[in-house]
Amino acid sequence: MLIRVGRDRSERIDLGLAGALSLIAGALNAVGFLVAGSFTANMTGNISLFTEHLAQRQVLLALSFLGLVGAFLCGAGLAAFAVQSGVRRGMRSIYAWAIAAEAAVLLPLGLWLLARPGSAPDFFLVSLLSFVLGLQNAVTTMISGARVRTTHVSGIVTDLGIGLAALAGGEEARADTVPRLKLYGLTLACFAAGGILGTVLFSRTGAWIFLLAACGLLALSMPQILRARMS
Asked: Total structural domains in the chain?
């Protein structure tokens, strides 16, 4: 799931990756909104809020939303740099290590918040979540040849609409479109399910949700790292 790249990936592998990581992304996005009223995966919304508050001369508030975009950008850029460096060195496990790095950010965050509840400023928390989601989205985009984007809901809905329209075409068009519709539909459904799950878990368990997300990411990435070493 985190070893094969681009055209070497099967439909089943892409579906598994999209489902698992979209679920986690949706949960973390929901937590960001519950904490500070900010969507940590929605860069379109954050840019819109930045321009709106800037037009109202609420400069500090505007800059906070721009900061979330910057955090997402940094996460994506750092992931891309790490992946490119690993690929040049022939590291088949580099994509799995990048997902493990996401867990390595969430795990100490959860432990810190459990030990000292309320100690993390809201802006720091949502910025960190934007960073890890930018990292995750870059990894899934690069490993799948841009087929899987776990946080890019606007683009997924657009592609879903285009795909549904393509079903009205000939048999060949439908054959090419159906696998993509499965991928887009699963990604969207899992992101939404993650949002519901994240809201429920955060309201009941608080910072434990970060530990659960980290464990899920490690369960996904570590077997792939071991598999790459053994092959």
From this structure: 1
